[in-house]
Design a protein that fits this description.
Elements (H helix, E strand, L loop, with lengths): L1 H20 E7 L9 E6 L6 H7 L6 E6 L6 H9 L2 E4 L12 H13 L3 E4 L17 H12 L5 E10 L7 E7 L3 E2 L1 H6 L2 H19 L9 H10 L7 H10 L14 H10 L1 H11 L8 H28 L1 H21 L15
Parallel strand pairs: 1-7, 2-5, 2-6, 3-4, 3-5
Antiparallel strand pairs: 6-7, 6-8
Helix pairs in contact: 4-5, 10-13, 11-12, 12-13
Length: 357
């Protein structure tokens, strides 16, 4: 009970944080999510740990998460992650000897599904900012079919989920979370040999993910197509429209990016948040993986910026009265909300130079 209350508190805080951090969050297909029963959300993975945050805060089911084991290295962090229903998944890059730990994790996943709860997994196996659905690993099929084998009365529904960002790692974020059609798994498992069942399930999920997110085939034409879309300043969160352009090989004419007339407001926000901003500038230089830029920046915004505003409001309240403190806190939040809601989110190809933007 205590863990559920803690999770609900963190969930609400993150949802509020994403509201301030994002220009627009479009959510489609939530009617496809079963209201009860075992569900596995199979999600593409373009943008680090913010991907599961957008998914879990846009559906009403109580989610457990599988994330890479490297996140659990520090004992204190491990306890926090486990309290939020995160489970480690080990990969070959973690060491072959570590793969044996997945047996225990899979057992926990089977219990979760057998209890009629939900599990979120990223079947591509790793994150990558490329606008392409990569080949899926069979790990998620092992979890599903292992649970079905243990419980003959269990049905597991897979919901593919496509996440597409206008520009990963850019603030303010503009994102679409697209829930796909339910895939029931019992029939597939019982009607085919295991190897064939695995291939069928992987194909069904992959085919949907390619439609639920912007998918540029990762071949020799990838960079050319991406450049044409970027030059045309397309709205990548209009997923179906952009995928039609890719399929037909017809692209709009080149457009100039929109000017950011709110830049003075941005500098005012920075001035009001100078300490955490300077800390972010320092931290951002040490981020090795581009896909983690949004993760660290969002966490910094959520905690340090909020804490700074609250402390300054308290100090103002002590010396000048509660009205002044409340006015400062309200204005600070309002400035962030205005910038996040109205600053342009131009399409552009990501480089390390964007990391502090």
């Amino acid at each position: 009970m205590i863990q559920r209350v803690w999770f609900a508190l963190v969930w609400g805080t993150i949802k509020l944080g994403l509201f301030f951090y994002s220009k627009k969050i479009t959510v489609l297909g939530t009617q496809n999510i079963p209201k009860k029963g075992a569900v596995l959300f199979a999600v593409n993975h373009p943008n680090g740990l913010v991907d599961p945050l957008y998914v879990t805060t846009t559906n009403k089911r109580h989610n457990h998460f599988l994330v890479r084991a490297a996140s659990f290295k520090k004992p204190f962090i491990k306890k926090i992650l486990e309290s939020l229903y995160l489970l480690p998944i080990y990969r070959i890059r973690d060491g072959i000897q570590q793969l044996a730990n997945n047996k225990e994790i899979f057992e926990k996943c089977h219990k979760i599904l057998n209890s009629g709860e939900t599990l979120m997994i990223f079947p591509e196996g790793s994150h990558d900012k490329k606008r392409a659905i990569r080949p899926l690993s069979k790990g998620f099929t092992r979890i599903v079919f292992g649970a079905l084998e243990k419980n003959k009365n269990l049905e597991i529904t897979i919901i593919p989920v496509g996440i597409t960002y206008q520009h990963p790692s850019h603030y303010p974020a503009k994102v679409i979370v697209n829930y796909g059609q339910p895939i029931t798994t019992r029939n597939i498992f019982e009607a085919n040999p295991l190897a064939k069942s695995i291939n069928i399930l992987k194909a069904k999920v992959s085919n949907q993910l390619e439609k639920l997110s912007v998918h540029i085939p990762d071949d020799q034409n990838y960079e050319t197509i991406l450049q044409k879309l970027t030059d045309a300043q397309v709205d990548f969160t209009a997923v179906a429209e952009v995928n039609d352009m890719i399929a037909s090989n017809r692209f709009p004419d080149k457009k100039q990016p929109k000017r950011n007339y709110l830049k003075p407001l941005y500098f005012l926000i920075i001035l009001n948040s100078i300490i955490p901003y300077l800390l972010w500038r320092k931290i951002s230089k040490k981020i090795d993986e581009i896909e983690f830029i949004d993760t660290f920046r969002f966490a910094l915004n959520l905690f340090l910026f909020s804490l700074l505003y609250l402390v300054k409001a308290i100090i103002l309240s002590i010396y000048f009265g509660n009205i002044i403190g409340f006015f400062y806190l309200s204005i600070s939040a309002f400035m962030v909300l205005i910038y996040s809601s109205f600053a342009p989110t131009n399409a552009k190809k990501h480089t390390k130079l964007d990391e502090a933007s």
